[in-house]
Amino acid sequence: MNRLYKTLMVLELAAAFGAGLVGWTVTSQAAETGAPGASAKPDVTRGQAIATQVCASCHGADGNSAGGAFPKLAGQHAEYIVKQLKDYKTQPGAKEPARKNPIMAGIAGALNDQDMVNVAAYFETQKAKPGYARDKNTVALGQKIYRGGIADRGVPACAACHGATGMGVPVQYPRLSGQWSDYTAAQLTAFAQGTRNNSEPMHTIALRLNEAEVKAVADYIAGLH
């Protein structure tokens, strides 16, 4: 039943994206006609156009999604967003993309490298709305994992890479502060199961966490600021 529901949701989202995505692709290709190549400098105005036409339905026009089914992108490091968009594409020599998602595969496939740079730069400039931890009973456990890890299982502190307040490090590590707990928990599960295969360290770490620990640390991260 869950599988059927997810399939229907994917089909509905794909249909909803269709017109906007096709429209953006035509506009983007027309704008690029005659251009010798993508500029390294981001165009935030064009990035906003992509966000409005293609991304807003799930992530919000300003990158603040309405719920945990889709991540907040506001304030996220641009380099990280670009990498994730590329990871939804099957790269030369690979049999499948590093991140498997039929909706995002279609969207990323319609964007050229400059489009990705532009939309990522736009989302980075947006202000993320704060999140909140929801379960007071797991805050202590979540804090322990985030700040100190689990030494006897080789789980490092999340803060070591993502920072004490979850702001991450540009290029290297994503911002986690205020991210929806449902989304963070889902990604940790995907890392553990190998359905998200674009970070070997996160795969190893996620494998060493049980379900209760995943939920606790994800909820704690939601309240970081």
Automatic annotation (TrEMBL):
Residues that bind heme c 1: C55, C58, H59, M104
PTM entry text: Binds 2 heme c groups covalently per subunit.
UniProt KW Cytoplasm keyword: no
Claim: Metal-binding is one of the keywords in the record: yes
Signal peptide: 1-30
Primary location class: periplasm
Annotated InterPro entries: Cyt_c-like_dom, Cyt_c-like_dom_sf, Cytochrome_c4-like, Cytochrome_c_Oxidase_Subunit
GO molecular function, one term: iron ion binding
Domain annotation Cytochrome c: ranges: 42-127, 137-225
Alphabetical list of Pfam families matching this protein: Cytochrom_C
PROSITE patterns tied to this protein: CYTC
Protein location: Periplasm
Gene Ontology cellular component annotations, sorted alphabetically: periplasmic space
Keywords assigned: Electron transport, Heme, Iron, Metal-binding, Periplasm, Signal, Transport
Binding-site residues, heme c 2: C158, C161, H162, M202
Protein name: Cytochrome C
Organism whose genome encodes this protein: Caballeronia mineralivorans PML1(12)
